[in-house]
Amino acid sequence: MKAVLATDLSAASEATIENETCLECLGRIGIDEMHLVTVVPSNVHGGMPGIDFEKRRRRSISNYERVIERAGFDVETHVVRGTPHRRIRGIAETIGATMTVVGSRGKSPLENRVIGSTARNLSRTTETPLLVNRVERGTDDPAVVRQHLFQRMLHATDFSENAERAFEAFSYLRHATREASLVHVETPKDPGLPKDDDPESRLADLAAQLEEWGIETRTAVRRGDPADEILAAEDEYDPTTILVGSRGHSRLRRLLLGSVSEDLVARANGNVLLVPPA
Q: What CATH number should be reported for the domain holding residue 67?
């Protein structure tokens, strides 16, 4: 399996790459080939202070390449120019990546806005499962907030086709997952399930699948705003990663689910794994 690891070569991204537990977790779920990507923004050009920016990035990325190779991965590096989220997405689609990994914080306030924008735009447009790897904020030496990326999963589902596709990610996550919390949020804004369809029973069916794989599972039906309730469940259950479908197929549904996933990317304490429609 292949993964794209996107980096702006900031301290935060360095923390993500150099954390051996993070790399071990990716290896545990079957990733064996890593494509390390850094994008030189298209507005950096001759005559600007960053004229040699591309050369510096090529030198810097070689250090990251060695770290990943030592962890046992085949590595290919890509230093490209353009709009970050578009180039990252394009490379992921071209190589047939199973997952794209991006840090959620840059080193400086300006870089924080840039990497934040990249993560948000990827969450809206990615065709590949996107892991937003949370790193500590407000520190000069950031570290990965959740070292064991997939050990305790929180899966939020509305039982839609896209949510079912997100649940299917457990087929490979199960090799690193020990605990799972399955949550459905009922909301007045959503017509919800048919009257004869019981969300607790549907959650129980999903839990049974996970327990067959030896994953200890709890279920909960909550009521309220989806993003708020998912984040409240994160506070209660302390997962290492939230797993959620990123959007639906219709334009309206994409907007509604997209707003929830963007809220999770922006506000979650830990990592977020977004799975787009097929």
A: 3.40.50.620
